[in-house]
From TrEMBL:
PROSITE patterns: GATASE_TYPE_1. One of its GO terms (cellular component) is cytosol. This is Class I glutamine amidotransferase-like protein. Pfam families: GATase. It comes from Lasiosphaeria ovina. Keywords: Glutamine amidotransferase. PANTHER family: GLUTAMINE AMIDOTRANSFERASE YLR126C-RELATED.
Length: 253
């Protein structure tokens, strides 16, 4: 078999994707899982997804040899905490990078922050949390990455956001793809992270409307305030296009 045919077969082979769901005792864990199934399946139905729950099931991690992509997903816990399960996630990330050079890792929200911490970044509390679809401007490196993949022709990426902490200092060895430390790509093209949620649609986002009470002091009896929040969650976003680029990137060297 020639190299060209081998490469074509590799491109056509369904991807095996491991997804770490890091929410601790979340009542929405089934809905979070389904959001990944729905969003990735809409882009590439033949992808094979496997889910792991390191926060609730200690030691529940994938075998990196069995997967093309490992996604470190969101959580309801401060990534700066020293809980044993968080330390195990850190160890897993470090082990994958050290023992499986080039293995593709993708961090989302908490995963973005946690990978940043592991590689020397800093996490800060936000003055104003983000909830709903927001726009992030591409950096020059981001334009090269996203536009090359066919996304982001207008220079911005729109994603669902749900966080009150952010990366304050960029991790070492990473390009900034979206301004404000919203997305990073490692220099060796093996680790890609997003603060936003490409897996979330409005249905999933609206499960957390009540967080506006704690974060903004929103009165849920204020119909207009709730409608404004729901409107932001129902805005058009680039989740499908981002997944398309992520899956394309997974097959890149």
């Amino acid at each position: 078999m020639t190299a060209t045919v081998e490469q074509q077969c590799e491109q056509e082979r369904p991807l095996n994707i491991a997804i770490l769901l890091n929410s601790f005792r979340s009542p929405f864990i089934a809905e979070i899982r389904e959001s990944y199934v729905r969003s990735i399946g809409a882009v590439t139905p033949e992808c094979r997804l496997s889910f792991f729950y390191p926060a609730d099931c200690p030691g529940d991690f994938p075998d990196p040899d069995a997967f093309d992509l490992i996604v470190v997903g969101g959580s309801n816990t401060d990534p700066r905490k020293q809980h044993a399960w968080i330390q195990r996630v850190h160890h897993f990330i470090v082990s994958v990078v050290a023992d499986y050079p080039g293995k593709k890792l993708c961090g989302i929200c908490w995963g973005h922050q946690t990978i940043s911490l592991v590689f020397g970044g800093q996490i800060v509390d936000m003055e104003t949390p983000e909830l709903g679809v927001t726009e992030s401007k591409m950096t020059p490196a981001g334009r090269q990455f996203f536009v090359r993949g066919g996304q982001g022709g207008d220079g911005v990426v729109r994603l669902q956001q749900h966080h009150r902490r952010a990366v304050g200092v960029r991790p070492e060895g990473f390009h900034e793809l979206l301004a404000g430390h919203q997305a990073f790509l490692s220099y060796n093209n093996a680790i890609l992270t997003f603060q936003g949620h490409p897996e979330k649609d409005a249905e999933t986002a609206k499960l957390r409307v009540k967080d506006a009470v704690r974060w903004f002091g929103t009165d849920l009896a204020d119909k207009q305030a709730v409608e404004d929040l729901v409107w932001r969650m129902e805005l058009q976003h680039d989740g499908p296009e981002i997944w398309e680029r992520v899956l394309q990137w997974t097959r890149e060297p």
